[in-house]
Amino acid sequence: MNALAKLKTLTPSVNQIVRTYALKSDLKIKWVRPEKIPCYKPEKSGDLQSLPTFAGTELMKDYRDSKELESANEHVRNMFTIQHNRRREMVENFKEDMVRRVYRHELDYGSIEAQLGLMTARIRSLQDYMEKFPRQSVVKVQLKELIDKRKRYLRYLRRWDYRRFEYMLEKLDLVYKPYPTHFHWITRKDSLRKLTNIHCDQIKETRLEEYRRQLESQQLDFLENKLKTLEFIRKEQTECQVPVTVSSDEIKAVRKQYEELKQKRAAAAESLKEPEDS
User: Fold this and answer.
1) How far apart are CA 264 and CA 268, in angstroms?
2) Residue 254 lies in domain
3) Contact of 261 with 219, CB cutoff 8 Å
4) Cα–Cα distance, 134 to 214 (Å, whole number)
5) Can you give the pLDDT at residue 180?
6) pTM exceeding the 0.90 threshold for the entire prediction
7) Can you count the helices (H) and strands (E) in the chain?
8) Do both 52 and 163 map to the same domain?
9) How far apart are CA 31 and CA 54, in angstroms?
């Protein structure tokens, strides 16, 4: 009695350790969760180019048209180059170049084209910064907000003027990636179902292909037997003086099909022998 009582108490713990329910799949299908791409990456934002590398001898934006620096000493000129100043000056030059691609006039900084150029320049500079310092959460939030704002502006521009929208994408090297209308969670269960369906379709295709090859290998013998059978039936019906059900045209068609297939197989066999001999 004591032994039975001990077994009763041990039974629940055994069931918890050993799995005795559901179906254990024998399919060798391995699912790996796809790597999540951060929202600030160019793959998500749609930027086709990164922050360019400017020449170190290029002057800062505010001193490009200075006549005094043209005749100044080399050491004095170096003080106003990008190489000897902060990174911010290089970003300002990049902003100016991006605006000049799409601006309407020389003093245009308020149109939607100029704003998109400024936002694109800032986004690419922050993306370059995040590659070096990926743990900067404040910069990450600013970058995410900028990408969302630019995407909203592009959506409006696409709705208002599609030709100008395409022009902006071409000039700024962008790909418009709108937000999906329906969000679909990536789960292991759903992915395994799709992988299992693909696996079953592949098995079906391979087996059908094997069966087709098997039938093709038997096709020549089948036509030969068919030809002999038709000739025998026609001969017997003629000798027995009964209505002939097999016409000579049918026999000629089968004989022609048999000869063509035989020649085709012989040509294929010769073509396989030529590489081996060479």
Assistant:
1) 6
2) 188-277
3) yes
4) 59
5) 85
6) no
7) 9, 0
8) yes
9) 44
Averaged pLDDT, 29-55: 88
Total residues found in the chain within this entry: 278
DSSP element (H, E) containing 194: helix 188-239
167 and 71 fall within a common domain? yes
- In angstroms, the CA 262 to CA 85 distance is 83
Longest dimension (CA), the chain: 121
- Give me the amino acid identity at 74: E
Spell out the residues 6+ positions from residue 30 whose beta carbon is closer than 8 angstroms to its own. none
Least confident of 3-12, 94-103, 147-156, 269-278: 3-12
DSSP string, 57-104: TPBPGGGTT-STTTSS-HHHHHTTBGGGS-HHHHHHHHHHHHHHHH-S
In the block, residue with structure tokens 């001990």? 6
Average pLDDT, integer, range 90-102: 87
Residues 84 and 108 reside in one and the same domain: yes
Residue with tokens 């329906």: 182
195-218 burial, b for 16+ CB within 10 Å, e for fewer? eeeeeeeeeeeeeeeeeeeeeeee
Write down the H helix ranges in 103-187.
Answer: 112-132, 137-160, 162-172
pLDDT over 80 (residue 35) = yes
Pick the range with the lowest mean pLDDT from 2-16, 25-39, 120-134, 190-204: 2-16
